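Consider the tokenized backbone below.
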């Protein structure tokens, strides 16, 4: 007697376009619910005026800073974490393929990811400088002003969250902004979304770039769109070639964690390099960064393929 298709197979037959729509609905609902929960916690703990102060960017008191972290976690971090878990375990019922949490990849890739992230810094700065010079046509001046105002507001909130007066503050930011953010965002974008787009477009290059564009757009920081998109592309190839999300999580952590550590050292006058400085490298540095980053990516791809072929044939021999 022939067995019917398993449940995961039936769920995977759902068109990727519908999967995308379902994932986005879950994410929106999670953000709305999480935001209300965060506001309720802040209101109960400090009073509703504290939330109003945050909305008006009056962030001088300790309670507004603590409240900002509460709202950030309940309204953004936790929803981004719970969405891919609900989707992969209960909607498509295929967490292995949609989360890609396996550790079956050569650990030399971790070293390559670190080197790639370090060497890509000048290239990221170059794209950031291009973004900062962005000017919209005159008939879009209203939109441009709104984008600048939104950017300034986001920067003020980020500056508050990145204030670190002690090593403990730095360690907290390293774990929250560095590690936790890397895990939740990679689970959503390079885990679920990129997998959906690979199955939708039948081309992993297109899937990587589309995911990277959405990844950057999600952050709503218009004058940092290009560098964040590049980061999304790098993370996308880390996952596509290794078959695991962890190299991308590591790369994401290296990027965010470096920013946290450098900011801490600068704030406490241990270094003179301002992390907000827009011009650290010259044109030669940008070209060298591009060439070496591409070479490191090709080496990453080569080692991933070689390991997968070796692993595949090894299983067949067993």
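A designed sequence for it:
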């Amino acid at each position: 007697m022939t067995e019917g298709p398993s449940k995961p197979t039936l769920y995977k037959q759902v068109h990727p376009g519908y999967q995308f729509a379902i994932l986005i609905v879950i994410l929106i609902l999670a953000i709305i619910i999480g935001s209300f929960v965060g506001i309720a916690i802040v209101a109960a703990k400090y009073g509703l005026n504290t939330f109003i102060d945050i909305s008006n960017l009056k962030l001088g008191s300790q309670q507004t800073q603590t409240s900002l972290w509460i709202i950030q976690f309940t309204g953004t971090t936790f929803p981004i974490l719970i969405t891919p878990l609900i989707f992969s375990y209960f909607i498509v019922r295929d967490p292995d393929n949609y989360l890609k949490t396996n550790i079956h990849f050569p650990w030399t890739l971790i070293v390559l990811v670190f080197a790639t992230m370090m060497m890509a810094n000048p290239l990221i700065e170059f794209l950031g400088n291009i973004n900062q010079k962005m000017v919209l046509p005159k008939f879009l001046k209203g939109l441009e002003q709104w984008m600048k105002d939104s950017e300034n507001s986001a920067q003020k909130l980020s500056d508050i969250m990145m204030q670190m007066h002690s090593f403990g503050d730095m360690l907290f930011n390293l774990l929250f902004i560095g590690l936790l953010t890397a895990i939740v965002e990679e689970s959503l974008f390079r885990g679920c979304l990129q997998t959906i787009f690979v199955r939708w477009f039948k081309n992993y290059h297109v899937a990587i770039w589309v995911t990277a564009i959405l990844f950057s757009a999600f952050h709503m920081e218009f004058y940092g769109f290009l560098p964040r998109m590049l980061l999304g592309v790098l993370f996308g190839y880390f996952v596509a070639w290794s078959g695991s999300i962890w190299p991308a999580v590591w790369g994401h952590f290296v990027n965010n964690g470096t920013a946290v550590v450098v900011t801490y050292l600068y704030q406490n006058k241990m270094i003179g390099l301002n992390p907000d400085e827009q011009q650290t490298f010259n044109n030669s540095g940008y070209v060298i960064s591009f060439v070496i980053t591409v070479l490191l990516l090709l080496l990453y791809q080569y080692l991933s393929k070689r390991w997968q072929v070796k692993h595949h044939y090894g299983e067949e021999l067993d």
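The chain has two domains: 12-99, 100-318.
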